[in-house]
């Protein structure tokens, strides 16, 4: 990357010149003019454009829209020793992400009423390096709060159909799910669902010990399949828009595609860890790989990739859900007692690109899954594309460079990740939020992220 200052009166604050750029219609070359934080022009590479400054991408760099990660557990306030807004958003910026949407649980209080949202916004304000939106929670006992949360600007509501892992975020039963979806349909909002069935999990063998196969048997595909079928039918009855979080069981793909063909309003995400790891290779006691639903077999992973290729899966987001090393129980390695969650916010783009390139996918597909897709599903209208009018959120990416992950060098609050020691392709050279560098050689220390409200442009 080379920069120069121009003497004549500038039309733009910044001009990016890229031999390779991923636009809404795929890969090409181009010049991108930024004015007042927005993309004001996208022109051919040789078009003369005067900027206050010009950023010339190097031969091995590609200009991408900033990634959008709509599934991040920041845990702040209340469990900020697990993660926090300054660390999570710094890690996001370093990983090429310019917008996150924060989950409503594992923080205290959980985001289940407008007051709790206000508390969280107060903690995040002035402390975020990327733009941050918020999900609200739909839990047992708060369904009368959904309208107020919606009016306060949440991007939708998250619910569980089994114990969430924390007592203060109780699941919905079948009748409550239906009632909540009726409200969601009325508001034209979005319900995002952790789809594992509590009865199926109760009847599965209990998770204990250090053997990964025993843990996998405790969270069977059937539990996911059953819950997803229930959500699809409830969405069909109510007309509500639903989103299946962190899909792990590839068995569910045909029924999701079938429901969608029938007109059910459903979108689906999966996560980098389900696309990267396979259960056969997870060592005994390696609880940094524990998450729910779990990482499954190699054949399952390949079917998830097919789900992406066929368009059944809309997006890939991190489900970054860290905790302290103590809660991961790394010393005893017991999958039954360790906290479930994979820490990966900073690594998602490289992790997915590493796997995608070996399967014949290009960067345009990765951008559609990790930037445009999550922006569309969440309703982030100004994000996820290099196009005129969008926020100038950009990532300068070197797809053919590589690195080995060292958990101690990441910006996450805790140095634990399932990717430690793995070689990943693709290096983020710099990240730009509304035309300002937030990662890379020129990034300032001051947080410049904004708190976002649904519907704001
Ligand atoms: Zn999650």
From TrEMBL:
Pfam families: Amidohydro_1. One of its GO terms (molecular function) is cobalt ion binding. GO terms for biological process: allantoin catabolic process; purine nucleobase catabolic process. Pathway: Nitrogen metabolism; (S)-allantoin degradation; allantoate from (S)-allantoin: step 1/1. It comes from the Bacteria. Homotetramer. Catalyzes the reversible cyclization of carbamoyl aspartate to dihydroorotate. Belongs to the metallo-dependent hydrolases superfamily. Allantoinase family. Belongs to the metallo-dependent hydrolases superfamily. DHOase family. Class I DHOase subfamily. This is allantoinase.
